[in-house]
Amino acid sequence: MKTLVVAATKAELAFFYQHFNLPEGDFIEAKNFDLLITGVGMVATAFSLGKHLDASRYNLVLNVGIAGCFDRKIELGSLVNITEDIFAELGAENGDDFLTITDLGFGENHFYSKSNINVGLPIAKSITVNCVSGNEKGINGLIKRLNPTTESMEGAAVFYACKQEHIDCLQIRSISNYVEPRNKDKWKIGLAIKNLNDWAIAFVGDMN
Ligand SMILES: O=C(O)c1cccc(C(=O)CC[C@H]2O[C@@H](n3cnc4c(=O)[nH]cnc43)[C@H](O)[C@@H]2O)c1
Questions:
Q1: Which residues of the chain fall short of a pLDDT of 50?
Q2: Residue 94 Cα, ligand 1 centroid: separation in angstroms?
Q3: 2-207: which CATH number, 2.60.40.1180, 3.30.420.40, 3.40.50.1580, 3.30.230.70?
Q4: For the whole model, what pTM was predicted?
């Protein structure tokens, strides 16, 4: 059985590709792990995992990527272990209230990593969104309703697919920016990617 490493973009695993001397490509089979680049967002992620996730082949999915952070006490470039993740927009607006898909009786929007693997990182709750949050009113609404620490565009989709296939899942995110009105000049994508890759290289190296 192997680990499937999953990321949205190749850029987020640039040093990982170099370290393990991986060929270009969105699905790479290495000796001790496979690597899947899904594309950005929950639809691309679900489609890609639908094609490649196979419980007879993988006993662990390691989802890695950068993320936005709601908590200013967490430094840019820090890594967190996401143990719960919520599809933030999946449901219905009911005036000023929000009804989740569970409230509507159509399924689940809240997923967990139940992995026992100790990765030595602080745990955090995340939300998964189609639209990167960028206005005060929307951000305050998300904090009030869901109290998330981080935000990504894929995490809950990976947890969902792993739950469907009964495969253990870890989601490690590196904080590239704070969730605030958009100002990409303040994002520290390079630092976040470097720290994420250092961690992923060590984690996958230790598995061997
Ligand atoms: O501009 C670049 O150099 C660059 C290099 C690598 C990746 C990116 C991305 O923008 C990746 C998109 C990816 O990032 C996640 N993300 C990061 N911050 C947030 C956020 O505040 N809210 C939601 N998602 C965020 C997301 O998972 C995307 O897949 C750029």
A1: none
A2: 30
A3: 3.40.50.1580
A4: 0.97
